[in-house]
Structures
1.
Amino acid sequence: MKLSGIKYLTDQGVENIWKNKMMAFATFCVLLISLLLVGASVLFYINMNSMILGLSNQNEIVVIMERGVSDDVLKQTEQAIRKLDNVNSVEFRSKEDALKQKKEELPAAKEIFDSYITDADFMPDGFSVTVKDTDKISTTSDAITKISGVQKAQSSPQVAEFLKELRRVVTLIASAVIIALAIVSMIMISNTTKASVYARREEIQIMKYVGATNAFIRMPFFVEGMITGFFAGAGSFLITWGIYRSAYKVITNEQYIMQAFGMKSIIPFSDIRIIVLVSYLAAGAVIGALGSVISTRKHIDV
């Protein structure tokens, strides 16, 4: 097909949107709602997964050193811990920090602490260690215990196992919901595009009778569906952007939520903006174009 012919058919597709405003608008709305449903589900799952990972990262190993160890031993111990494969970060906790934490945990005993405990010499120094893979937290804890100068290393493998199972359940539920929404959306889109094409079935049949090829007939519908889907994707992106940013501000203002799940557990929209935009535009254009072309098959085969 010549370039002039492609341009003519493209112009026809754009013109058809204006001629059939109501059906084009109906297709636009269905595509918009479908993209929003699936997109919101995917974003919810991504953030839930990130929040669970944030909780996992807080499942740390508490390392308690032997009392009275020198600064050189503390440095050597820290270096030895950092060399372990599964260690993500190591933070030194002095005995003064440990005493301060105990005071915060036991506010009822404040008078006893202030009256009888004047220094922190009886408290041991230690480290707070986070791991890369929480499934290996027990192995890492055992390895730390064997390091010279370490009295014990405490961890909670049960918490790690619970978070692993929670992540698996969330993934299964989210996948089922996303697949179900995608199927429902495809059915809605298919029915809407079929209705749009059915309204112009006589036009298609006349073109077929006068010798128009299948590609010639389908091209305007392809362009029409692609443009409608593209704008539906753009609209979905703008709505998602506005709602996501508002929800993000509300959640991040609640300090107890951010402290519980980790400050970086909720993903800022700016970090995923480009991916979301491209996904919406591509999905909308492809689904709109294919839906329109597939729906013309019945009326082309005359």
Note: DSSP finds twelve helices and four strands in the chain.
2.
Amino acid sequence: MRHLMSPLDFNVDELDKILDLAADIEANPQKYAHACEGKKIATLFYEPSTRTRLSFEAAMLNLGGSVLGFSSADSSSAAKGESVSDTIRVISCYADIAAIRHPKEGAPLVASLKSGIPVINAGDGGHEHPTQTLTDLMTIRSLKGRLGHLTIGLCGDLKFGRTVHSLINALVRYPDVTFVLISPEELRIPDYVREDVLRKNNQKFKEVTRLEDAIPELDLLYMTRVQKERFFNEEDYVRMKDFYILDKQKMSLAKPDMMVLHPLPRVNEISTEVDDDPRAAYFKQAQYGVYVRMALILTLLEVKVC
């Protein structure tokens, strides 16, 4: 039995097989429409979510399975003080696989150690978000045709942005990837990512403050929101939230084939005027998330479709 806590839980060959399977699901959805009949996924979301929770549920429904779970800690026995370990032991009696989002780093890992079913980390605090990373990889590979030989700008909240941390961890394993880390001083990438991931892997990267200075060289721009829920101080959030706004003027500085990704939800860091730009790929990205999670469910449940 395998779990997914981090993108590094799969090697590059295994990641490629999941992405190949997701691409086949996109091309041949009917082939997989009954693959998980009789199977159930439990979505255990201790934090609010729209895309991640609903895409997991859509993925299992598209595979012919069913869904149970909760969408906030208040609607679960966590409100009564039940531990994650006890919750997953109970859920293991009801479902075949579980996806857990939790505000505390490491909570899904704790659950996986006590679980009788595969557990997927659907986001733990500011730490990791591996299924978003699989979604990002599929989006990049589908739209750019490759996962190596790219210059990628990561912009916004790089300190608390778990999607950024997971994506860097995954992409350092591909050849000739250069990272341009665009953030204010207060929201720079954490030291452990800079030292233990980037420098340890001799990765090419630079840190800049101005998006306008970086955007002309990028093959891909990954925007993130400044996350209000990660701030202890309202004043700090208000000061940071409008630091970067991607608009038509900034897009005019970019390459004709530069793609814009965003894990969503956005607040105002991408102007709605950018939505009609053919380089804006963030809504396609959300669709790819369903195919990737379908592929991941099949892989962890060891369901083979001929």
Note: The radius of gyration is 19 Å.
3.
Amino acid sequence: MKREISLMRLEDVDAVHAIEEMCFAIPWSRNSFYREVTENACARYLVLREDDVPVAYAGMWFVLDEAHVTNIAVRPDRRGLGYGEEITRALIQLAADSGMTWMTLECRRSNEVAKNLYHKLGFVDVGFRKRYYADNNEDALIMALEQLPEANPERDPRLARE
């Protein structure tokens, strides 16, 4: 089985949206992902593929020197295989390679699996947002990764080269 991680392409939008619908109570629309790929210059999304089929994705927005994670999801039938950690590590490296100096995200306070992964990767709890999630008014834990790995700007796929 061939596995690879690369930037999300326009042809990935339908598969990424399908994963989103499987994983979240209030999923983003297909059009939202389409716009992330085609219009949002601050957005970066990665897709993990098995034999060219998307099975996980992760996205972030760049705001000044901060990479803010928007979504990370693994297709339910592919969970427990380390894909969440693999794509999150790739997202962190892409943020570093792209010149970001730190990373933030929100996570449901009840999501122990995600919190454990983020803590394993070096994220620390920095606060919470009251009633952040609209489906059940659950609070969001705000987490930050204050030190990104060593950057290799040559690996930034959007680096302008002259």
Note: The chain has a mean pLDDT of 93.
4.
Amino acid sequence: MGIFSFFSKEKKETLDKGLQKTKENVFSKLTRAVVGKSKVDDEVLDNLEEALITSDVGVDTTLRIIERIQQRVARDKYVGTDELNRVLRDEICALLAENSGGDVEGFSIEGRQGPYVIMVVGVNGVGKTTTIGKLAYQFKEAGKKVYLGAADTFRAAAVEQLVVWGERVGVPVIKQNMGADPASVAYDTLASAKANGADVVIIDTAGRLHNKINLMNELTKIKNVMKKVVPDAPHEVLLVLDGSTGQNAFEQAKQFTKATQVTSLAITKLDGTAKGGVVIGISDQFKIPVKYIGLGEGMTDLQLFNREEFVDSLFGGI
């Protein structure tokens, strides 16, 4: 059982509120898709396809969903438009389950010898450092000793922001001078964390989508140096994406998955956008589990992704 797995009533309320803009967007489009129709026919499916694509689910994922609904309609013989909402929820939930390999839980750090190392990647401005701060807060609240590493040494603002989060949460931040070797910062962070009995280490990396080869080399070097301190590090490579950018998030995921082995995703800023459908598409296209979603600025507004609750919030009441 991973950490942060419990889903409370308060979290559900935050999720419902955070996805409200996306829900209203999807609701209006689905309503138009079935208007004047009593059963799910080809015209309804065509309208549904357009509704999903324009809700940033993505073309390929939309086609998979439509195919699944066609099979369901053929199997069940008659599916009325009043049943479409339930069928859509069922099929999207099933799709998310397939892509995550089962139930998605938090990071499994219990019973380990030495620190659990999370390397966080993503472009500047997606909420990467904020996500690190919120994760650190949640780990600390769970009784874990946390260290942060400021390995984004190319931007003074990135280091300063991480230090601010460290102070807010009450966890140490290991840093060096601007322009220092990021791998050196990662090494120092792990060495200090290991020497002081830390449970979790979170390493921030440079958020630059520059030349892919340079990005790949930089991330590979950081990973190799960390292994000198903790041989099986990093245990998780978390890619942070800004959900409000819609299709741009797909491109960022494409670039980073080519540059390094991404093991999980955090999709942020869903509370301020109508593009929450991007969560479904990215999970499907990259076959990487979405582990966290960001639904606000508060310390507790980073939630473990629960696919059933997510889909229920997205389509509940439609």
Note: The two ends are 33 Å apart (CA to CA).
